[in-house]
Design a protein that fits this description.
This protein is an alpha/beta fold. The protein is about 40% helix and about 20% strand. The protein is built from eleven helices and nine strands. Strands 1, 2, 3, 4, 5, 6, 7, 8 and 9 form a nine-stranded mixed beta sheet that branches. It starts with 10 loop residues before the first strand and ends with a helix.
Length: about 300
C-alpha cells in the first residue's frame, strides 16, 4: 500500500453518513484495502441513532490513515452533509464516498494517476458495477444504462460546452460515488444550494456541471467500485425490480426530478466568478438544457 508524498497529490475521502451501519463496515474496509491509501478520511454524520459511531470508532483505532469524524448538531441531509465533509478535507483531490458501496482496490490509484498525468483535468468519473444489496452481480454496469461506450468516452475528455453536452446525454456518468475532483474547485462549488434546490437532494450534478465548465473532465471506462442498489438509497431503483427495468424507470422521472431553479443557481455561480464572462457558452448550454427539460416535462 502506498500513500501520498510531500511532492505528490494528497487524497481526501469525504463521506456523508446517515444510518449507514448496515453496510458501512464493508465500505470502510474497501477504503483501507486501497493499493494507494488515502491521506485522510473525513466523515460527517447525521443524527447518531444506530451503530455507525461505534463502527467508525473501531475502524479509526486501527486505520492506516487518519480518520476525522464530525457529528452534525442537526440533520443536514445528503447534499449539505457532503458539503460539510468537503469543507473539512485537507487534500488536493477529494473523493466523495457513499457508505454502502465497495471500492475496488485500485480505485484511488487509477484516478490519481490520471490527475497526475493531466494537470488541466478538474474532475474524473469512472464506471461502476451494479450489484444487489448482498453484493451479487446484477450483470449490468452503470454506464450501460446511458449507452456509454469506451470509444465514446473520449468525448468527455474536454471542457465547457462540449463536456456539458456529453454529461447531459450520459447522466449516470456523474454519480458522486464514481467521481473525484480537485480541491481547487471548492471556491466554485461551495457553498452548495439548499437541499430543495439540489438534484434529488444530492450533490452530484452540482459538482459535475460546475467542474465541467471551468476545467477539463475525464472518464475511466472501467468499473472501479461495486455500486450497491437497495431500497434505502436516496437514488432511484431497488433490488425488487429487474436491473434493466430499474434503469428504464430511472429515466422516466428524470425530467420531474430537476428543480426548476437549479439551472439559474448554476449560471449565477458561474457569473459570480472573476472570469465569469468567459463562461458565456456554458451558461447558454445550461439554459438550453433547462428549457429542453421543461418542454419535455410539459408533454
Amino acid at each position: 500500500m502506498t500513500t501520498g508524498t510531500s511532492d505528490g497529490l494528497r487524497i481526501s475521502v469525504a463521506m456523508a453518513a446517515y444510518s449507514g451501519a448496515r453496510y458501512l463496515a464493508e465500505q470502510l474496509d474497501s477504503i483501507a484495502r486501497q493499493s494507494r491509501a488515502p491521506d485522510e478520511l473525513v466523515i460527517c454524520y447525521d443524527q447518531p441513532i444506530d451503530e455507525t459511531i461505534k463502527i467508525i470508532g473501531e475502524f479509526s483505532s486501527s486505520s492506516p490513515f487518519p480518520v476525522r469524524l464530525h457529528v452534525n448538531e442537526a440533520r443536514l441531509g445528503v447534499g449539505k452533509g457532503f458539503e460539510q465533509a468537503i469543507r473539512m478535507c485537507l487534500g488536493d483531490i477529494i473523493f466523495p464516498s457513499d457508505c454502502d458501496d465497495v471500492w475496488y482496490a485500485n480505485k484511488l490509484q487509477r484516478i490519481e494517476e490520471l490527475f497526475s498525468a493531466s494537470p488541466s483535468v478538474g474532475v474524473v468519473f469512472s464506471d461502476a458495477d451494479l450489484v444487489h444489496q448482498d453484493l451479487t452481480p446484477t450483470g449490468y454496469r452503470l454506464w450501460r444504462s446511458a449507452t456509454i461506450r469506451s470509444q465514446q468516452s473520449t468525448e468527455i475528455l474536454k471542457r465547457g460546452r462540449t463536456a456539458l453536452r456529453a454529461l447531459f446525454r450520459w447522466r449516470p456518468a456523474w454519480c458522486g460515488n464514481t467521481m473525484a475532483f480537485r480541491a481547487r474547485l471548492n471556491s466554485l462549488i461551495l457553498p452548495m444550494p439548499d437541499q430543495c434546490l439540489m438534484w434529488r437532494g444530492n450533490h452530484d450534478v452540482w459538482i459535475a456541471l460546475l467542474a465541467a465548465c471551468v476545467s477539463d473532465t475525464a472518464c475511466i471506462p472501467e468499473p472501479l467500485l461495486a455500486y450497491r442498489r437497495h431500497s434505502a438509497q436516496t437514488t432511484s431503483g431497488h433490488d425488487k425490480l429487474p436491473p434493466l427495468l430499474r434503469l428504464k424507470r430511472a429515466r422516466r422521472p428524470f425530467v420531474q426530478a430537476v428543480p426548476p431553479d437549479l439551472d439559474r443557481f448554476i449560471c449565477d455561480r458561474l457569473r459570480s466568478m472573476p472570469e465569469g464572462s468567459s463562461y458565456r457558452d456554458c451558461i447558454s448550454e445550461i439554459q438550453d438544457w433547462a428549457h429542453h427539460l421543461a418542454a419535455r416535462a410539459g408533454l
